[in-house]
Amino acid sequence: MRRFALILLLSLWVALANAHKPSDSYLALSVHGERVTGQWDIALRDLDFAIGLDADGNGEITWGEVKVKHKEIAAFALARLGIAADGVGCPITVTEHLIDSHSDGAYAVLRLAADCPAVPQILTIQYTLLFDLDPQHRGLLRLKEQGRTHTAVFSPDHDTWRLEGHSVALGRQFLEYFQTGVWHIWTGFDHILFLCALLLPAVLQHRHGQWQAVESLREAFLEVVKIVTAFTIAHSITLCLAVLGIITLPSRLIESTIAASVVVAALNNLCPLIEKRLWIVAFVFGLVHGLGFANVLTDLALPKPALAVSLVSFNLGVEAGQLAIVATFLPLAYLSRRSWLYPRFVLGVGSLSIVAVASIWLIERSLNVSIFS
Question: What is the per-residue burial (b if ≥16 Cβ within 10 Å, else e) of 345-368?
Answer without folding.
Answer: bbbbebbebbbebbbbbbebbeee
